């Protein structure tokens, strides 16, 4: 094509193809419903309950090697994206984590983690397709009120699922690090929770054990998985209002990319060629165009007219695609994967 759009499977910039190859070469897309859902906000220093589920409840781990690989990626990502886990539990087909972020938005960290782990998983088991169910869940937690309950909720997951009788019997959670049976990995910080019990480590661990044996507070599990506000927040209205204002005030300046970089990354994220994304009438091509239009508007100094020339499409058509982006989970999934490709391409440039 003479529009400047590359055939993304062969002619994308070398650093972009290297970034994709670094994660197993497996970049997939997901089709999902177009129901609108709660918006996610980023608060620097915020505590989030993160949930990643396997698609159709399929396993995301087959053995301990898979779990160790996830933890290796978390160790790398926590250093790069400046986040820390305060608690975690790896179940068979989903994971729970209490994640405290820095200035880097949580979405950048979790998209990178899920992108890289899915690439490893697909490579190891010679499979294709999406591993995770839609985008991850993330509930912003009022740590003053709910930190202890959240960590207990996470650690009690295998008990509630009737896989074990006590959290001590589940090897793949942070519970054993809290009671001192194993050393905490560098990406796990137990201090904020244990400090709530005592400033003396032994007393704190003993009090934590007592706390874990107490009846759980009458709170629906859905509160920890959906929040109790109009946005995904678990806290009272005053906390929600403060966090929304803080998120607006602290919103970081986003890295910008050229329109050509965006289109090439979207091609890789959607597993399509440049010609396919421009001309196909299939649903996956429509989602890819929505993602490209949205990213050009929000992450580029170019406009939709320039994108329309590149893609040989009418600007008004791309404008409508951009407006439909917020209602399309499939388009947002493509955009998230494209941003991961772009970020890793810049890192390897």
Automatic annotation (TrEMBL):
InterPro entries from the xrefs? DnaA_C, Transposase_17, Transposase_17_sf, Trp_repressor/repl_initiator
Q: Where is the Chromosomal replication initiator DnaA C-terminal domain?
A: 258-325
Entries under Gene3D superfamilies matching the protein = 1.10.1750.10, Transposase IS200-like (3.30.70.1290)
Q: Which SMART domains match?
A: Bac_DnaA_C (SM00760), Y1_Tnp (SM01321)
The segment(s) forming the Transposase IS200-like domain are 43-157
Q: Which domain of life is it from?
A: Bacteria
What is the residue range of the signal peptide feature? none
Q: Name one GO molecular function term.
A: sequence-specific DNA binding
One GO BP: DNA replication initiation
Task: Indicate what this protein is called per its UniProt record.
Answer: Transposase
């Amino acid at each position: 094509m003479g529009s400047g759009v590359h055939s993304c499977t062969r002619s994308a910039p070398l650093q972009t193809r290297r970034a994709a190859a670094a994660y197993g070469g497996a970049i997939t897309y997901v089709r999902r419903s177009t129901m609108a859902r709660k918006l996610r906000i980023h608060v620097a220093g915020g505590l989030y309950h993160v949930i990643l589920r396997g698609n159709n409840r399929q396993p995301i781990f087959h053995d301990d090697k898979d779990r160790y690989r996830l933890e290796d990626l978390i160790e790398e990502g926590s250093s790069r994206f400046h986040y820390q886990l305060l608690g975690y539990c790896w179940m068979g087909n989903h994971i729970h984590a209490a994640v405290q972020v820095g200035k880097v938005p949580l979405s950048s960290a979790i998209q990178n983690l899920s992108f890289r782990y899915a690439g490893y998983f697909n490579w190891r088991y010679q499979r294709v397709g999406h591993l995770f169910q839609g985008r991850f869940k993330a509930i912003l937690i009022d740590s003053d009120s709910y930190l202890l309950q959240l960590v207990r909720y996470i650690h009690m997951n295998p008990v509630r699922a009737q896989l074990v009788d006590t959290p001590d019997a589940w090897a793949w959670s942070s519970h054993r690090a809290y009671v001192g049976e194993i050393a905490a990995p560098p990406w796990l910080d137990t201090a904020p929770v244990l400090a709530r019990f005592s400033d003396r480590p032994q007393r704190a661990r003993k009090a934590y054990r007592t706390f874990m044996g107490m009846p759980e507070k009458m709170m629906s599990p859905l509160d920890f998985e959906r929040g109790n506000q109009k946005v995904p927040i678990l806290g009272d209205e005053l906390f929600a209002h403060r966090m929304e204002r803080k998120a607006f005030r602290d919103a970081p300046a986003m890295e910008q990319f050229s329109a050509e970089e965006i289109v090439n990354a979207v091609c890789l994220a959607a597993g399509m060629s440049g010609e396919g994304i421009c001309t196909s009438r299939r649903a996956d091509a429509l989602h890819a165009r929505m993602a490209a239009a949205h990213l050009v508007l929000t992450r580029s100094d170019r406009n939709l007219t320039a994108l329309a020339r590149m893609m040989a499409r009418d600007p008004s058509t791309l404008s409508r695609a951009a407006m439909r982006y917020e209602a399309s989970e499939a388009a947002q999934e493509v955009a998230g994967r494209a941003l991961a490709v772009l970020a890793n391409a810049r890192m390897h440039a």
